[in-house]
Amino acid sequence: MPAFETEDHCSIYYETYGFEEEKPTILFLNGITQTTLNWLPLARDLKHQFRIILYDARGQGKSSPGQRELSLELHVNDLARLLRHLKVEKSYLVGLSHGAQVACAFAARYAQQVDRLILCSLGAEKDKFTRAVITTWQKALAAGGVAAMAWAALPLVFGRKYLGAHQRWLDKIVAAIVSRNKKAFLSAHLDAMRHYPAPSTFASQIQCPCLVLSGTDDPLATAENAKRLADLWAGQHILFQNTGHSIPAESPQEFKSALLEFLQT
After folding, report:
1. Can you tell me whether residue 218 is helix, strand or coil?
2. pTM for this structure?
3. Domain span holding position 158
């Protein structure tokens, strides 16, 4: 199992594809309950055009939590160490939700290492609604475990169209989330997220071209808030119709097309 160890003895799991040749590198960053498995179909599809890196942040999937209290800065440090470990000097960063926040913070701190930035389901400001959602998930997690939190999250992280089309698969979606996450680690992530700065605070430090993607049915990163984020960097904003927070899963072909068009322009 490919992994490297941080200074505090945290094992970070990663996967690489297409590293046999010199090509541009794309690194994908997971959402809060995701693992490398969520990006795998896209990685296999793009590995002939790019070198691909997938990884589980500490406390996610196959990565251990380490001995330090989780924070955005710690995730950024881990990502920097991963890229040094793989001898990658510059890459495209593609992050979803929590992964987008980490990508944003990394691009602000390590500007020379980021060629382009693609942020999915992230807005410029943190609002009271998002804070209330995090609190709700924490309460559900404490009372009923990962399954209860997953069920509470479904109507917020998937749009109406996707939920309607996948009604009979919802049990399996929740089961997959339960199998890939541990209650204590998720609780630590949610605690840390309460203290993350608003993405707008990094605006003056971002130097690379940026693309912000959002869905019309996403209550967590509204179209208005996502566009405001793109405008801060004079970046592009694409709004996906009938799509919620989980853009790559809900609109995979449209997501891939937007990604490739931005990277190849």
Report:
1. coil
2. 0.96
3. 129-185
